[in-house]
Design brief:
This protein is of the alpha/beta class and 123 residues long. It has a single domain, classed as 2,3-Dihydroxybiphenyl 1,2-Dioxygenase, domain 1 (Roll). Helices cover 22% and strands 37% of the residues. The chain has two helices and eight strands, in the order E-H-E-E-E-E-H-E-E-E. The strands form two sheets. Strands 1-4-3-2 form a four-stranded mixed sheet, with helices on one face. GO terms for molecular function: lyase activity. Keywords: Lyase. InterPro entries: Glyas_Bleomycin-R_OHBP_Dase (IPR029068), Glyas_Fos-R_dOase_dom (IPR004360), VOC_core (IPR037523). It comes from Novosphingobium kunmingense.
C-alpha cells in the first residue's frame, strides 16, 4: 500500500498554492511542512501527496511515465479538480470524460512543474 507520493518542484511556493487548492477540494490540507517539503493528506487516512525540492539540490525534473492519480468521490468532483488545476497554473493533458468501458471517468492534467496527475472515479 502506498502511503504518499512525492513530486519534485523548483518553486515550492507555487506548488503549495496549486496543491492547497487541490487538497481543499478533496477535503484535506497540509499534514507536514518543512522549508523544502510540504505533504498534503490526512494522517491515518488514504495516500497523501507531497511536493519537494530535490534533496540533492539539483533541478527537479518530470519523470517520463510517472503519474499520480487522485481518487475523486464522483464525476462532478473530477470536473472540479480539473478546473481547479487549470485555474492554479496547471495544464491540460485530457479533459474530463469517460475512458474505455467499465465506468472509469477521468481527467488528466499537469501541475505547474509539469508533473502529471489524474483525477478519477470508478463505477
Amino acid at each position: 500500500m502506498i502511503g504518499y507520493v512525492t513530486l519534485g518542484t523548483n518553486d515550492l511556493a507555487r506548488a503549495a498554492a496549486f496543491y492547497d487548492a487541490i487538497a481543499a477540494e478533496m477535503g484535506t490540507g497540509r499534514m507536514m511542512e518543512f522549508d523544502t517539503f510540504i505533504a498534503w493528506g490526512t494522517p491515518g487516512g488514504g495516500c497523501g501527496i507531497a511536493a519537494t525540492k530535490p534533496f540533492d539540490g539539483a533541478e527537479a525534473t518530470v519523470g517520463n511515465g510517472v503519474m499520480a492519480a487522485l481518487e475523486a468521490k464522483d464525476a462532478e468532483q473530477v470536473d472540479r479538480l480539473y478546473r481547479i488545476a487549470l485555474d492554479n497554473g496547471g495544464s491540460d493533458e485530457g479533459a474530463p470524460g469517460p475512458r474505455g468501458d467499465g465506468g472509469f471517468y477521468a481527467a488528466y492534467f499537469r501541475d505547474p512543474d509539469g508533473n502529471k496527475l489524474n483525477a478519477f472515479v470508478m463505477g
